Structure formats: structure tokens, C-alpha cells
Amino acid sequence: SARTAASGGLHDCLLEALHMDSADALIPWIYDPARTWADVAALAPVVCKCAEAGDQDALGAVRTTAAELALYVRAAANRAGFESAFDVALCGGLVESQLVRHHLDECLAYECPNARTAEPSVEAATGAAMYAARLL
């Protein structure tokens, strides 16, 4: 039977997602030179599912991720000279989790109070092209 976030916790869910029988295989997997950030990022939905089911390790990872994202927003806002309220467009699989968004909103309120999360008004590639056109 499949392991679930409720029954096996983050450890078991990660092993199942990676088709592994033992945690001993995790270290070689993560340090494999062929491993990409995308491979690791693909595990985010597993972590989010476990966090939503109440797994404390997964919830800690979600909180840490939200705090790190808020620090990136603060750094970018400082560098760009944003002083008034501004929107932070959320895109990608990680921020599709309501739990991640909730913690990100909390962290932004503390780290960068002028920032507010928003849905993107255009696709990322379109936004990048529009920004590049302004630079010309």
C-alpha cells in the first residue's frame, strides 16, 4: 500500500517519491553530480502535502522556505529602492500550496511590510520580455 503523509510522515513520503527503500540511499541521491535543482524542487509538493497533514518536520521546512523567500523579497526591494507598497507576483509549484502562501504572507509582514502577495498578471516569460523592452 502507498505510504501517506498522515501515516508515514515526511521521511516515508520522500522515500516513496524517490522509489527508495532506505534513507541510506538519500545521501548518494542528493550528492549525485547529475542531480539538478529541478530534481530536488520536484519534491516540494511531497513536503507540502506532509506539512498540510501535520508533519512537524515538513512544516518546519515550509516555514524555513517561506522565511527565506521573504528575505529574498526584502533584498530585491531594497536593491530596487522600493519604499511604497508593491506586489510580489507568486508563480511556480511551491507557492500553489496555501500553507506556503500563508507562511510567506506572515514572513513578508515582518521582513518587508510594504510587500503584498498577488497573482501574476501575465506569464513569467511575457513579464521578462516586457521588462527587457523597458531596458532598451
Automatic annotation (TrEMBL):
<dbReference type="InterPro" id="IPR002731">
    <property type="entry name" value="ATPase_BadF"/>
</dbReference>
<dbReference type="InterPro" id="IPR052519">
    <property type="entry name" value="Euk-type_GlcNAc_Kinase"/>
</dbReference>
<protein>
    <recommendedName>
        <fullName>N-acetyl-D-glucosamine kinase</fullName>
        <ecNumber>2.7.1.59</ecNumber>
    </recommendedName>
</protein>
<dbReference type="InterPro" id="IPR043129">
    <property type="entry name" value="ATPase_NBD"/>
</dbReference>
<dbReference type="Pfam" id="PF01869">
    <property type="entry name" value="BcrAD_BadFG"/>
</dbReference>
<comment type="similarity">
    <text>Belongs to the eukaryotic-type N-acetylglucosamine kinase family.</text>
</comment>
<dbReference type="GO" id="GO:0045127">
    <property type="term" value="F:N-acetylglucosamine kinase activity"/>
</dbReference>
<feature type="domain" description="ATPase BadF/BadG/BcrA/BcrD type">
    <location>
        <begin position="20"/>
        <end position="132"/>
    </location>
</feature>
